[in-house]
Design brief:
Layout (H helix, E strand, L loop, with lengths): L5 H23 L13 E6 L12 E14 L2 H6 L10 E5 L2 E7 L8 E7 L5 E5 L6 E7 L15 E4 L1
Antiparallel strand pairs: 1-2, 2-5, 3-4, 4-7, 5-6, 7-8
Length: 163
């Protein structure tokens, strides 16, 4: 039987410590908040082309990056059926360098439902979700040009969070 070297001992000790390190990492990571709402970073859309006579359509899946939000107050079904849902205006807006930060604040006891519509670049497809009544604030940060206009095709995706 061969004698164990210092290297073997160190490797064995590290391998034994891995499960403990995994548990420590899991317990020290910041917990996910149940009342946070974020739009997915991208949306996959099934594209079904309408082919003229004699042509064969071939569907495809297209990936679209997050582009922005619309917050709407009221009945979800009737607002989404409307040609243009009645968007809530932000309560405040602030320019910081080449960014614009828009913020919506909600009272603790709001009567009407508020829902979020997540928009994606290059498609009219959207995602919508009711905001939990525990949400008190939504904020979006978007990249702007030198004049303060929000860019249609920013280098970085907008940052959005409700909590």
């Amino acid at each position: 039987m061969e004698a164990s070297t210092g290297w073997d001992y160190a490797v064995t000790a590290m391998l034994r410590a891995l499960p403990l390190l995994a548990v420590l990492a899991a317990t020290t990571a910041p917990p996910a908040r149940a009342d946070e709402v974020r739009c997915p970073a991208s949306l996959t859309v099934q594209a079904q082309p309408e082919a003229p006579g004699g042509w064969s359509p071939y569907p495809a899946k297209d990936q679209h990056a997050f582009a922005g939000v619309t917050l709407v107050e009221g009945d979800w079904a009737s607002q989404m059926a409307a040609p243009a849902p009645a968007a809530l205006e932000p309560d405040r807006s602030l320019r910081r360098g080449r960014s614009e930060i828009r913020q919506w604040d909600f009272p603790a006891a709001r009567r009407d439902n508020v829902f979020l519509i997540c928009r994606y670049a290059g498609t009219q497809a959207t995602l919508a979700i009711d905001l939990p009544r525990t949400v008190r604030r939504c904020q979006i940060t978007e990249e702007t040009d030198a004049r303060g206009m929000v860019l249609d095709k920013p280098a970085t995706a907008p940052q959005f969070l409700c909590r």
